[in-house]
TrEMBL record:
<dbReference type="InterPro" id="IPR042532">
    <property type="entry name" value="EXOC3/Sec6_C"/>
</dbReference>
<dbReference type="InterPro" id="IPR010326">
    <property type="entry name" value="EXOC3/Sec6"/>
</dbReference>
<dbReference type="Pfam" id="PF06046">
    <property type="entry name" value="Sec6"/>
</dbReference>
<protein>
    <recommendedName>
        <fullName>Exocyst complex component Sec6</fullName>
    </recommendedName>
</protein>
<comment type="similarity">
    <text>Belongs to the SEC6 family.</text>
</comment>
<keyword id="KW-0813">Transport</keyword>
<keyword id="KW-0268">Exocytosis</keyword>
Length: 821
């Protein structure tokens, strides 16, 4: 008994109770044995039947083998007989050829009879594939290779018929032509399908439809191999003389699928380029700004498509050369048409951009300049000559237009939102930065010169030629200085017109006799004798606003040149070129700043001219009695302060902070000097009386002049930033000090001491004419005392300058004060 049986019995009989079931277990084993015996008998019978069947087949195969041997023996006998009897062999060969020819004719007849239907059906299928391809870039043309196989067989049949009838009669040729005529549409359709695949290749690749490339490459590789076979056959002079050959593989000429591929691939990119040229036909130079698509195509072909093609095809170089040739031809045609200077620099700029781009793609490849180095040098020289001439011409036209706008003032200045950061101090004198936006008045198109400069300089910098960039910057700055000089002349002319019409000099002449305040006697016109049109042409309204607009325009332009242009363009060139760039911009900014100061002086003169009606009373009896208990009139200095505040409040609303700050400081300096000059002139040559230090009460010079200083400070302090208020206080100190200088005891001793202790610490470069005016206006002093005091003051001033450094922020109010006795 086997171990398996014993194991099974052991698993069934484990306990005493299982022994009692032995009979049933035995019966179960008997049944199972019967089942196994039946299955074994059945399987044995199946295998036996299979063996018998195989024996029968083997017997049949042996019989067939014997038949084959008999046939082979018969063939051998026929061969031996044919070899032994040459006459019969030749006859048999002829019979074979005749039989082959008859079979070929039969096959030809059959193929010709069905040829038209087959060709038309295949043409229809190809047309549908073309439509499918045109409607979807993801369509893979599943039957592409099968279509090519069928198409190739038809082409081969077509070549066979033409080749073997080329020396036949014209009638036969005509019949063949009629038979093969449908192949023309088929060839055209298949070429269109290939063309559609080729022209859609880049877009299909973008859609990850790579099957098109693989199938196309397979077809081209096969055709290229067949063309090679044909060329080799021709080289070996193996002519196709056997008319009975298989025409499904017949070729009489090369089909050049690879050349077809490159031609269509080239036409696709050329067509895309020409479409871009056509789109920019209205502005030919704009083409260079719209070639990002071309660079994208080159990068895509290089990165995504070139690895899919055979390396020897050099697809990426081929595509690059297509675009290079088109760009080169387009650029040369454009250059031959003598483009404008700015267009020349744009061409040169793009040439460098294209060359750098190709290098970034191909690494250490040779430079691909679309112009050429020699032509580029010539173009740069021509550009420099042209752009300097054009810039001068443009600057002349700009000055002419700006002059017209500034003089005519037909409308309010333009408004330019200007965001500014202002450094100030808080109540604890700690520095803070304030941000504010002012709706600044500016001249129309005031940024045009800056934009023109940036455009030309950027173009020159992109062209990679530092000398051209320097020349453009220097020429621009020269033109800018000319514009500044032109504006200076306009300001002078308009100020002359203004004072011919609005001059309040007659108040001073009539009431103060202060003729010597002016270097030249102003022209006084008979305004009433002029027509309204003549009055309008003489001096139009809005001069102050336009002066402010001009100052703002210049200051904003200065900021652009200082903080943007200078640093930006120095970064684009070698440090050897930094000095000329700095010098050019510094010269332009210096001239511009000088004009801004002149403008602020002009506005100050207009304001002061408006104040003459009140200032003419300074230091007179009316001035001493002003604001006394005997009159209820508003004090003269209150009116003056309100007038100044009105002018300055308006200026603050439309001037940028730097202009407003300079304007107010210059005005304060001029106002204080004018205040002193008119007062001194009134005392010495007008209705005023000399200062009597002994006078007391409200008519005392000291108390009266202190009120003027208080009213001015109180009326103007709100118009200053916290840090600028110091300048206001210091400027008005020149008026306030007159109280002590004009009324102190022992003036020959105290005035020099006060000059040292109080005047020079505030006004570091104070003019000695300030003290001279005080001395000559005192009742107890005169020219003799001044002659004695003057050298003492000179020595004090020199000694002070030796021992004390100039202040960081000087107060310039009295630096240029002049007084003629």
């Amino acid at each position: 008994m086997s171990d398996l049986a014993l194991s099974r019995i052991g698993s069934l009989i484990k306990t005493q109770d299982d022994v009692a079931n032995i009979a049933s277990i035995k019966q179960s084993f008997v049944k199972e044995k019967s089942s196994i015996d039946f299955k074994l008998s059945t399987a044995t019978q199946v295998h036996f039947d299979s063996i018998m069947d195989n024996l029968a087949q083997m017997k049949n195969a042996m019989k067939k083998m014997n038949d084959i041997k008999a046939s082979m023996a018969k063939i051998q006998q026929i061969y031996n007989e044919s070899v032994a009897q040459p006459k019969d062999y030749e006859l048999i060969c002829k019979m074979i050829c005749v039989n082959q020819f008859l079979n070929q004719v039969a096959n030809l007849y059959d193929d010709i009879s069905h040829f038209k239907g087959i060709v038309e059906k295949l043409t229809s299928v190809i047309r549908r594939e073309i439509e499918q391809m045109q409607s979807s870039l993801t369509y893979t043309i599943p039957s592409f290779l099968d279509l090519h196989f069928q198409y190739t067989q038809i082409r081969n049949f077509h070549d066979y018929l033409e080749f073997y009838t080329k020396s036949s009669s014209d009638d036969l040729k005509s019949i063949v032509q009629r038979i093969t005529m449908p192949t023309r549409d088929l060839i055209r359709a298949f070429d269109e399908l290939l063309n559609e695949c080729i022209t859609s290749l880049t877009e299909c690749t973008r859609e990850n439809n790579l099957e098109i490339i693989y199938k196309l490459m397979a077809i081209i590789a096969f055709e290229e191999q067949e063309d090679l076979k044909l060329r080799v056959s021709r080289g070996l002079k193996l002519e196709n003389t056997d008319i009975n050959r298989d025409y499904k593989h017949f070729r009489s000429k090369e089909r050049n699928y690879k050349r077809f591929f490159f031609e269509k691939f080239k036409l696709y990119f050329q067509g895309t380029f020409e479409a871009c040229v056509e789109y920019n036909a209205h502005d030919r130079i704009a083409l260079y700004d719209n070639l990002d698509w071309m660079q994208d195509e080159i990068v895509f072909v290089h990165d995504a498509m070139a690895p899919l093609f055979p390396q020897q095809w050099e697809i990426d170089s081929f595509v690059q050369s297509i675009f290079y040739d088109k760009l080169h031809a387009y650029t040369l045609n454009l250059i031959n048409d003598e483009p404008a200077a700015e267009d020349i620099i744009r061409i040169i700029t793009y040439d460098k951009k294209f060359s750098d781009f190709i290098k970034s793609i191909d690494g250490d490849s040779a430079s691909m300049s679309i112009i050429g180095d020699d032509l580029k040098t010539t173009m740069l020289d021509d550009y420099l000559k042209t752009i300097t001439a054009k810039m001068k011409e443009w600057n002349f036209s700009l000055m002419k237009q700006e002059s017209k706008v500034f003089v005519e003032r037909n409308k309010a200045p333009d408004i330019y939102p200007y965001d500014q950061e202002i450094e100030d101090v808080d109540v604890n004198n700690e520095p803070i930065v304030l941000h504010s936006e002012v709706s600044a008045y500016v001249l129309p198109d005031f940024k045009s010169p800056m934009l023109m400069m940036k455009e030309q300089a950027d173009a020159a910098s992109l062209a990679g030629n530092a000398k051209i960039l320097i020349a453009v910057i220097e020429n621009f700055c020269t033109c800018y200085v000319q514009r500044v000089a032109n504006f200076q002349s306009l300001v002078d002319e308009e100020m002359d017109k203004y004072f011919q019409f609005y001059n309040n000099f007659h108040f001073l002449v009539k009431m103060s006799k202060a003729r010597r305040l002016f270097k030249k006697k102003p022209t006084v016109l008979d305004v009433d004798s002029l027509t309204p049109e003549e009055q309008s042409n003489l001096s139009r309204e809005g001069l102050v606003e336009y002066l402010g607009a001009l100052a703002n325009s210049l200051e904003i332009s200065n900021d652009i040149m200082n903080n943007k242009f200078a640093s930006s363009y120095k970064e684009k060139v070698h440090t050897n070129y930094h000095v000329p760039i700095t010098q050019a911009f510094s010269t332009a900014v210096e001239k511009s700043n000088s004009l801004v100061s002149e403008i602020c002086i002009s506005i100050s003169n207009i304001i002061i001219n408006d104040l003459y009606t009140s200032l003419c009373k300074l230091f007179t009896k009316a001035w001493l009695e002003d604001g006394s208990k005997q009159t209820e009139d508003v004090m003269m200095m209150t009116v003056i302060a309100e007038t100044i505040a009105e002018y300055m409040s308006e200026a603050r609303s439309y001037c940028i902070y730097t202009v407003y700050q300079v304007l107010f400081e210059i005005f304060l300096d001029k106002f204080v000097c004018t205040y002193l000059s008119i007062g001194f002139e009134n005392i010495l040559h007008g209705e005023g009386k000399k200062i009597d230090p002994q006078t007391q009460g409200y008519k005392a010079f000291k108390s009266r002049i202190q009120k003027d200083a208080e009213f001015l400070f109180g009326g103007l302090s709100d118009l200053f930033m916290e840090k600028d208020r110091h300048y206001l206080l210091s400027s008005l100190t020149a008026i306030e000090l007159l109280a002590d200088l004009g009324t102190c005891e022992d003036p020959m001793h105290n005035i020099p001491e006060q000059f040292r202790e109080f005047v020079l610490p505030v006004f570091y470069n104070c003019s000695l004419d300030y003290i001279k005016g005080v001395v000559l206006c005192r009742k107890d002093m005169g020219k003799s005392q001044w002659k004695i005091m003057e050298p003492v003051l000179v020595e004090i001033k020199n000694e002070y300058h030796k021992n004390v450094e100039p202040p960081a922020v000087p107060i310039l109010t009295l630096d240029g004060f002049e007084f003629a006795d």
